[in-house]
# Entry
Amino acid sequence: MRKRLLTLGLLLIGVVSAVYATDFAVIVHSSNPVRATSLVELGKIFKGKTHMWSNERSITIVLRDPDSPGMKFVIEKILGGTVEEGKTILNEPSRKTTVPVVFASSDEEVIKIVESSPGAIGIVDVYNITSGVKVIKIDDKQPFDPGYVLKGR
Amino acid sequence: MRNRNPFLYPIIALVIAGASAGLAGAQMQQPAITTHTAADAAPAEEMVPVTTSSPDARHDYELGLLYHEDLLFVDKGLVSLRKAVKADPHFALGHATLAYFTTDPVEERHEYALAQKDIASASPDERLLIRWMDGAKNGGLVPAIAAMNDLLAKYPNDKRLANMASEWLCANQAAYEHGEKILKNVLQSDPNYFPALNNLAYCYALSGRPSLAPPLMDQYVVALPAQPNPQDSYGEIMRMLGDYPAALDHYGKALQIDPTFNTSQVGIASTYALMGDQERARAEYLKAISGTKERPTKLDYRILWAMTFYRENQIERGNREMTKLVAEAHAADLPVEEAEIYRNMALFSTDPHHALKSLDAARVVLTENHEISQGSREIELANILQTRAYIAERAGMADAAQKALKPLSAMAQTSRSNIVQQAYHSANGAVLMTQEKYDAAIAELMEDSQNPLSLQLLADAQSKAGQAADAQKTLSALAAINDERVETAFAVPQARAALKQNSGTGAEAGGH
# Structure
């Protein structure tokens, strides 16, 4: 048996192959005063148009490889075009000096880098977050809120 | 006292051996299990600390977790946890754990309040554990997940913690990939850690891959030959796979090991119900009912017993029995069960107007002054409204479907519950079907692909949209469900009958 934390009528039973869906969390360093931003502003950061936080720290973006599961959705959602267009934007040579982008091999690595970099902003599967980083709201919503914009599939 | 009593580990080992031997009676002899429980597998500093001033409370807490989490004697586990908080009324982690595991809403609320009152006496890591348990059950998911991952990182060898976390991820959050990863890590360090074998099998089954589960069940049975739960789990997995004789065989073996292992008794009863032998099912359910003392569990089993009359189309008798249960649920202050009984009556009603009246009654229950968490109330209300939209659509009552959708839509704007969100999509799908917008309905209904009612509507929408092959596939998926839910009891027999009739000429799901 497995224990039932839900009531009788609510047992979760897999019927067809499960579609893996998750919310993506936008994370920053715990000392960063920012608590929320918008999808539009996030797009500006990703395009390198906004390059400083309000505390005048330079922004660094930390992401998993764009070809890794879920990242296609994240890049398309934030940058508004195709993933290939997004990759081009994120890999522009000028990005080495203006809002540099660091690609990590796992969510754990993204969190580790953000945890130790006061200006970093990263995106991870919400189920991988730790209290070492701060999860910020996007368009006034946090992961699991109805209508949260970074709900991926 | 923060540190574990070093003498506790032999005590726990003896308890397991004693439990196994005692429960097995004279029929089986088995070795003491000394290496495959969380408590004695890791040194104290490798496990989340437990702070209590009472050695008795600590002992009962460990025993409670052993029964509830490792051996799955759920009722006994709750009894031990209650003893633990009685021995130390200021035991914050004990109160929080009891609140997390209990199915009794009154007890849950009371114990959470006590945990919060004494939280200052808990260690920082216990507070993290309490934050996870509270958030996991009551909707504060972001801080709950952060707390869970902090603990998993700090205590990588605390297998019980890993097992509890992965069980929550797989069974409650549908985060199968994450649950599997944690369980596979545990099994890599200890391939015979039996609670993880069990949970990984269920993780596979719940994510729609039950065929991956039997090899794990074989290992689980070998790891704990004198315990009933491995056989019980094996029975449920085989039933999910539609192999009823094998399911009965495994449930029977579980009861041979321990005749008091009540979930196997229910397993036998429900398997007979699924096989269509309702008389035998009722007789078996009665044994299970007499074998439990937990109020909500007893009532759940009685609902299953009464449902057998609906299963064999004795609608009036079913209604009579359900009506009696409504009164008992009301008297016992179990509002979720009371509302669920009304929902059962609605689904099996032959008159859609009567069905909607039953659902009105279910909603009234939730507006009364009961001890019920906001989360439970919200989920039950979403179920009622979803069922209402379904029944209205099947009866061609477009206005009624729309009226059910309206409050559900408002709930979905603010609720973080997956169940509420899925109920909204299903109800919206039903409304779109009344408007003959089948493509839009299909997209909505696919958001609730684990609910038999939504699958039935989906098959119908696909058929009407000219997607015959998809409709047949959906109908086959629906027909393959073998579980105890009322939605299954209602929709699956219709799907099986429709599949027989269709014979490849396009699916048309049954209606209300």
In short: Residues 202 and 213 of chain B are 7 Å apart (CA to CA).
